[in-house]
Amino acid sequence: MSDSDVNPEDFDSTEPEERDVASEAATDHEKFLSMLPHYYRGEVAQANSLMDRLDLTVDWAIAVVTAVLALAFQGGDVTAYLLLIGIVAVSAFLLFDVRRYRIYDATRARVRLLEENVFANTFDPAGTPVDEWRKELGTDLRRPTLKVSYLEALSRRLRRVYFLLYLLLGGAWVFRITLFTPGEPWTETASVSGVPGETVAGVVAVFFVVVVAVTFWPTGRRAKGEFHGEEPGRWKRSE
Fold it and tell me: Nearest-CA neighbor of 206 among 168, 181, 170, 158?
């Protein structure tokens, strides 16, 4: 039967015979090595694409902060709650960023596995058990898992970018409700749509306490990589 006689509706990629289409390359050393560079380039390209998406999220967050600061201090009837809106907007960008970072970390971990067990051993063989890492990589390709917890990703992104944005907006808000309008009590300037200024200030203070705690709370590092003084570890598995 020719390929043209095969009905596409009869194809099921979940069938064992279809999933094992590349099993021949697993036992043929030459075919395996010829296929590996193509897979590696694809993973690197995907990691670069995900990194670009992370950078784009940060760029938008910075643009929003810049716009909010410009509007909040232009004078007139513009009130201080614009800065609080900016904090909410930055929080939304942070949540998007954390999700994208965790997916990026999973892709980067696969790239590092290939680099550690293939390319590094090409130059300096270390007796790595080939069957073990190939099995783990295959398992992760079939059932991808996130390699970094949500809390760690949130903390790392806060430390890298968003904590400084929060600090800038928080400091600007304090300045806006106090020194920027010396003729009005800060409780009146800080109020939002009938909500007393004391309540608004309390909510903002609690928010920043939580942000500081999440940012600097000491936790064990699970993200893959050796660029931050950490020793190379075992291939990470989901908890």
Answer: 170
